[in-house]
Amino acid sequence: MVKLSSNNYFLLFLGIVVIMDSQAFKRQLSFKDALLNKYSLEEDDEELCFIHISGSPKHKAPFDQSEHYQKRILTLDGCGITCAGPDREIITTCPNVEELDLAKNKLSNFEEVLRIISQLHKLEFLNLSENYLSQKIDDFSPFIEDQDRDALPSIKKLILNNTSVPLETVYSLLTCLTGVQDLYLSLNGYDNIPEAPEQYPNIRSLSINKHDIKQWDEVGKLGFVFPGLTTLRMSECPLENITPTELPQQFPELKILNLNDTLLNTWEDIEALKCFPQLTDVSLMGIPLLNQFSDQEKRQLLIARLPNIEKLNKTKIMEEEREDAERFFIRHHMDNENPPLRYSELVARHGMLDRLADVNLQAKTSAMISFIFDDQPLFKREINLMQSTASLKKYLSKFIGIPPPGFKLLYHDVGFCVGLEEMWFGAKKLYTFKMKDGDEIHIWSR
Ligand SMILES: *[C@@H]1O[C@H](CO)[C@@H](O)[C@H](O)[C@H]1NC(C)=O
Ligand SMILES: *[C@@H]1O[C@H](CO)[C@@H](O)[C@H](O)[C@H]1NC(C)=O
Ligand SMILES: *[C@@H]1O[C@H](CO)[C@@H](O)[C@H](O)[C@H]1NC(C)=O
Ligand SMILES: *[C@@H]1O[C@H](CO)[C@@H](O)[C@H](O)[C@H]1NC(C)=O
Ligand SMILES: *[C@@H]1O[C@H](CO)[C@@H](O)[C@H](O)[C@H]1NC(C)=O
């Protein structure tokens, strides 16, 4: 009997298919036929297109091959391609392709994939997402003709999301595709990292979102397989911990790490991020550890813990923001009997300011102030009172989107009925206003 699967749409659309024998469904569709189908499809009406797919592409209007000869970008996703086709058919049709999207086709044999790419000597980008490529292959060399061996290193960016490709196969593939720098392996269901026969230092960026790995020990193995990684994206996965001990050996070059929507749940995991020797950019949205805090608190608590991080959630951390965050952290842990190690580090660091405050008649060094922008509450924020009015204006300017000359600040000493006091002098330090928690600063646009 006929296996229908996704082909049954054709049955619904075309009465004539009913009389075709089951061979029609097993028919292979080559790369070139798919290409011709697709580009004639844009001119012909839909009915004709179906006849092309189920019948022979030779029926349609004469087709000028040279039309594809110069093409550098080919998008053939979802075209039903199963195979490369006759030898040299691709190289004579479209030899100049640099970017090729073959996502959502019916390629399930790597031999065919290699026959396609070994004909495209300029190929730099290849998308194979959503082809079912689950073969375990230890050695690709039997699939590659000697004369094609030189073509393969041209590929720089390789997308294998949602292909079920085993990591062992990826390793053997990379042994041939030595130019790949940017590799996407998301949605392949990996729950462990197998040993690799060699290291692949050319891979700079790896995306492996939505895997099934829970323990850092496995992730660490990735580092040994790809020692040149500068970017690792690993979001939406059940990772529960980060073990710091071997990080410098595992990820010596890593600068950018995305851990959004993982299951990290302790501050030790966060502190472990300090042990990556080069890490400066980390994304940590949607982790259970921080659920209980407001967005502002999340950011401040993370910044205070991570002196080496320059960008959090892709937003640059300004010097002033870090200072505020560290003060917030100290305040947050002040009454903690057993404060984290970082607490004493930060107290040591901000101690100078505290002594300076003592000299200044015990003025506070920070206060929780409510900001009111044109009579609307803006936010409540812990601010550093050792800064000048001008520097506060600069800070606020970012949030209200008005440059400092475009607004003025007025201090309201809540509890005294003296009204608003305009903060005229840019150089005046905030502590000289004797600000305290709960006071207000009004921002008036001019
Ligand atoms: C690769 O294919 C997938 C599936 O069609 C698509 O979502 C993705 O945007 C493609 N990637 C690129 C960079 O073209
Ligand atoms: C993964 O691919 C399958 C088909 O192979 C598709 O049904 C599924 O929606 C894809 N998953 C995602 C998240 O894109
Ligand atoms: C799959 O790869 C593309 C690159 O085309 C990437 O943008 C996308 O986020 C990936 N999908 C997942 C789930 O990571
Ligand atoms: C995850 O991190 C990226 C930064 O790389 C950010 O742009 C994105 O919005 C985050 N996504 C979620 C779902 O948190
Ligand atoms: C990440 O950044 C976004 C916007 O930049 C913010 O809403 C979110 O609170 C931040 N999360 C953390 C943990 O810093």
Task: Please describe what this structure looks like.
- Helix 12 crosses helix 13.
- The protein is α/β, with parallel strands linked by helices and 446 residues long.
- It starts with 7 loop residues before the first helix and ends with a strand.
- The protein contains 15 helices and 16 strands.
- Strands 1-2-3-4-5-6-7-8-9-10-11 form an 11-stranded mixed sheet, covered by helices on one side.
- Helix content is 30%, strand content 14%.
- The protein binds 2-acetamido-2-deoxy-beta-D-glucopyranose (5 copies).
- The site of one 2-acetamido-2-deoxy-beta-D-glucopyranose (NAG) has 10 residues, from helix 12.
- This is Tubulin-specific chaperone cofactor E-like protein.
Keyword list:
16 strands, single chain, 5-stranded mixed β-sheet, 446 residues, elongated, binds 2-acetamido-2-deoxy-beta-D-glucopyranose, alpha/beta, 11-stranded mixed β-sheet
Shape: elongated
- Assess the beta-strand content as a share of residues: 5-15%
Structural class: alpha/beta
- CA-to-CA gap between the ends? 79 Å
Pfam family, one: LRR_9
InterPro entries: LRR_dom_sf, Ubiquitin-like_domsf
Organism: Porites lobata
Protein name: Tubulin-specific chaperone cofactor E-like protein
